Amino acid sequence: ILHDPWYNKDTAFPLTERDRLGLRGLLPPRVMSFEQQYERFINSYHSLEHNTQGEPDSVVSLAKWRILNRLHDRNETLYYRVLIDNIKDFAPIIYTPTVGLVCENYSGLFRRPRGMYFSAKDKGEMMSMIYNWPAEKVDMIVVTDGSRILGLGDLGVQGIGIPIGKLDVYVAAAGINPQKVLPIMLDVGTNNEELLEDKLYLGLRQPRLEGEEYLAVVDEFMEAVHARWPKAIVQFEDFQMKWAFETLQRYRSRFCMFNDDVQGTAGVALAGLLGAVRAQGRPLADFTKQKIVVVGAGSAGIGVLNMAKHAMLRMPGTHKIGELGEGHNQFWVLDKDGLITKSRKDLDPAVARFARGYGPEEVEDLHEGASLVEVVKKVKPHVLLGLSGVGGIFNEEVLKAMKESDSPCPAIFAMSNPTTKAECTPEDVFKHVGENAVFASGSPFSNVTLSNGRKGYANQANNMYLFPGIGLGALLSGARHISDGMLHAAAEW
Ligand SMILES: NC(=O)c1ccc[n+]([C@@H]2O[C@H](COP(=O)([O-])OP(=O)(O)OC[C@H]3O[C@@H](n4cnc5c(N)ncnc54)[C@H](O)[C@@H]3O)[C@@H](O)[C@H]2O)c1
Ligand SMILES: O=C(O)C[C@H](O)C(=O)O
Ligand SMILES: [Mg+2]
Where is the Malic enzyme NAD-binding domain (predicted)? Predict the structure, then answer.
């Protein structure tokens, strides 16, 4: 019991329990209260902050993560109490940005396992392996294959930090029972050369499985989960784009699952886009007239585009039903090759409906592959939204061009994670776009003091504001599937 973080109370076991559980003599005699333990932890956290002053940010954050992780491994009751009470301070440690650093260094930081690991070598065994998990019941699973961890790329087995962090947020924000959550890593290999050569690397040292071989592993895993816990909700997280979409289509009508990067992000972004209309003092129905530039046409960018387009098409009030047809395109989408138009070679079918046609109705005179700054200068968008994974791509020139936006309060959403991958900082936005700009980022930044002494808000646009509600709602309602309508409702309400 003393070694089981689910049940351990450390020095808080009262004498009666020590007797009953055969713990007498295994602990120092003084019985501490939960409140004393709590205070002791917070004090040691503060002294760590004090003692690491002046050290590089990464050293301080990792030290903070270590002390929290040790508590997690020792005493979950105390850990979650501390986390819930201090979520604003601790979210950046257990979640983005520090969790990114933890994943990058996971093999070296590893002390105790958490969650389950299914690897390509476990083919044929998963149905029995799933019974190795000690809890009778599991409600929430977050699974990754480590192929696109935040904006950090393929981190293989080290990506397990992401499901762990997401499930901590489920417990802290949605009150999910921590004994009923399960972080899972599907290790199908890695294409990260550095990891393959790293002697400490803890995952399979082989290239990623592809095609049918890959899908066979994920299929077997999903069947195993469903066999043991038919009602568990499975959140897919940080899968590279092709598998994010493929697995979503493959499983969404068979299992209670969703893809957080595609759907959760879309819900949060839509909430932000609607907020940006309100910030302009315009009625929500004017959403259909917003000009939106999206930088990044990956799993997250396309998820946002689809949901925002759908919201425009069904926005009541401005038009007769059906008036805004499929051709109503308020989006300009760029990827690593610049603006996407219909003349793009090998145009991805998922982006085709957002590609600019540059027919007579489109007057900005842009060309295939146009650069971001050209697009912003010509379109004068209301919103500039980044899901590119490229830090600093909203540079001074781009932000100065946003000053000419047709919106009185241009919105800039730098949604890529972790902090180093944010497309810009709030300081840059308020300096170059103007103090009336609306800013949000995927990873947290501090608010900025503006010239008139007012606060420039560094809002956060991260799917963590949405997925806990989706999971909790699905769980409480006993939903068999997670529909787009649920995500729309989450975004709009
Ligand atoms: N804030 C959130 O809640 C949230 C949610 C999901 C993803 N993200 C972040 O979004 C980023 C992208 O995630 P994803 O799953 O879509 O990745 P992805 O790899 O599927 O897509 C990345 C896209 O960015 C494009 N891109 C790359 N370089 C570019 C450049 N120089 N200019 C313009 N476009 C460029 C690529 O062509 C691709 O279309 C990651 O950093 C991730 O952390 C944030
Ligand atoms: O993990 C996050 O912080 C958000 C998002 O799911 C991402 O992949 O960046
Ligand atoms: Mg993610």
Answer: 262-493
Instruction: Quote the CA–CA distance of 218 and 309 in Å, as a whole number.
Output: 31
pTM of the shown model: 0.97
The domains located in the chain, with CATH, are 1-94 (1.20.1370.30), 106-255 (3.40.50.10380), 264-462 (3.40.50.720)
The CB of 463 under 6 Å from ligand 2? The reply is yes
Query: Residue type for 173, please?
Result: A
Quick check: is 214 catalytic? no
The catalytic position among 9, 45, 79, 95 is: 95
Could you tell me if the CB of 441 is within 6 A of ligand 1?
no
Please give the C-alpha separations between residue 230 and each of 131, 234, 235, 375, 478, in angstroms, as whole numbers.
13, 10, 14, 48, 11
Answer yes or no: is the ipTM higher than 0.95: yes
Residue 223 annotated as binding site: no
Respond yes or no: is residue 166 known to be catalytic.
Answer: yes
Q: What percent of the chain has pLDDT over 90?
A: 94
- Of ligand 2's listed atoms, the one at least distance from the Cα of 148 is 8
Q: How far apart are CA 463 and CA 466, in angstroms?
A: 5
pLDDT digits (tens, 9 = 90+) for 33-68: 999 999 999 999 999 999 999 999 999 999 999 999
Whether residue 235 has its Cβ less than 6 Å from ligand 2 = no
